UniProtKB/TrEMBL annotation:
Organism: Actinacidiphila oryziradicis
UniProt key word Transferase: yes
Entry's Gene Ontology molecular function annotations: CoA-transferase activity
Source species, domain of life: Bacteria
NCBIfam families, per database record: pcaI_scoA_fam
Keywords: Transferase
PANTHER family registered for this protein in UniProt: ACETATE COA-TRANSFERASE SUBUNIT ALPHA, KETOACID-COENZYME A TRANSFERASE
Protein name: CoA transferase subunit A
The UniProt record lists the keyword Transferase: yes
Coiled coil regions in record: none
Length: 251
C-alpha cells in the first residue's frame, strides 16, 4: 500500500512517447509542475495532453509545448499562451477545443466508468455539427476537422453525445496526501485535479505535504487512494514555488 515513489523522475519513468496524459490545474493553480518537468527531462515526445489549458508564463505544460513534446491537446482554453496559438495555427499541433464543463464531465465520466453521456452544451454550433478545425496545414487551410456528433431529443431539447475520457496517465498536484494515495486539494487548486485523477489509468500525484495514513480525516479526502497509483512528496522549496499569473493589489 506504500505508493510513494523515490522521486518524480522514478514516478514518470515508464511514461512512453505517444502516451495520453490528463493534467490537473487551471491557469497556474494546482499545476503539477514538478512531474511535468520530470517528463520534460525524460525527453518523451508526441504526447496527447488532456487539460483545461496548456500552461502559461513558461510554467507547467508550457515547457513541454515549447520543447515540441506535445502532438495533440484536448482542452478548453488557449488564452494568452502565444506559443500554443502559434503552434495550432501553423499546423504543428492538433487541438480539440471543447466547452469547459463538457471537458470536466468527460473526465469525470471516464473515471466513473461511464462511456458516454448527452448534454445540451454545443447544440447549434460546430461542437455538435462538426467542422471545428483540429489541425491546420502549412498554408493555413483546415487539414483535420471535427466530425459531427450524434444528437438526440430529450424532453423537447436536443442533446449532443459526448464520450468519456480515459488516459494512459494522469498528473495532479495536491496540498496533502498520504502513502496510500488519499489526496486533499486546497481551495482553487481543487479544479480539474480530482477529475484528471479519476481519468488516468495510472495516476501520479505530487503532494505539498506527505503524511502518514490516518492523518487525513476520511471526510476530508477529496480523491481516495483507489484512484492514485504513485505519490511524490515535494520538498519545502518545491511546495512553495507557485507562480502568479496576474497580480492584483490595492493601494
Amino acid at each position: 500500500m506504500n505508493k510513494v515513489a523515490a522521486s518524480a523522475e522514478d514516478a514518470v519513468a515508464d511514461v512512453h512517447g505517444g502516451a495520453s496524459v490528463a493534467v490537473g490545474g487551471f491557469g497556474l493553480s494546482g499545476v503539477p509542475t514538478v512531474l511535468i518537468q520530470a517528463l520534460l527531462d525524460r525527453g518523451v515526445r508526441d504526447l496527447h495532453v488532456v487539460s483545461n489549458n496548456c500552461g502559461a508564463m513558461d510554467t507547467g505544460l508550457a515547457v513541454l509545448l515549447a520543447a515540441g513534446r506535445i502532438a495533440r491537446v484536448t482542452g478548453s482554453y488557449i488564452g494568452a499562451n502565444k506559443e500554443f496559438a502559434r503552434q495550432y495555427l501553423s499546423g504543428e499541433l492538433e487541438v480539440e477545443l471543447i466547452p469547459q464543463g463538457t471537458l470536466a464531465e468527460r473526465l469525470r465520466a471516464g473515471g466513473a466508468g461511464i462511456p458516454a453521456f448527452y448534454t445540451p452544451a454545443g447544440i447549434g454550433t460546430q461542437v455538435a455539427e462538426g467542422g471545428l478545425p483540429w489541425r491546420y496545414d502549412e498554408h493555413g487551410d483546415v487539414a483535420v476537422a471535427s466530425p459531427p456528433k450524434e444528437v438526440r431529443d430529450f424532453g423537447g431539447t436536443p442533446h449532443v453525445l459526448e464520450h468519456g475520457i480515459r488516459t494512459d496517465v494522469a498528473l495532479v498536484r495536491a496540498a496533502r496526501g498520504d502513502r496510500h494515495g488519499n489526496l486533499v486539494f486546497s481551495k482553487s487548486a481543487r479544479n480539474f485535479n480530482p477529475l484528471a485523477a479519476m481519468a488516468g489509468r495510472v495516476t501520479i500525484a505530487e503532494v505539498e505535504e506527505l503524511v502518514e495514513p490516518g492523518e487525513i480525516p476520511p471526510d476530508a479526502v477529496h480523491i481516495p487512494g483507489i484512484f492514485v497509483q504513485r505519490v511524490v512528496g515535494l520538498t519545502p522549496e518545491q511546495a512553495v514555488d507557485k507562480k502568479i499569473e496576474k497580480r492584483t493589489v490595492t493601494s
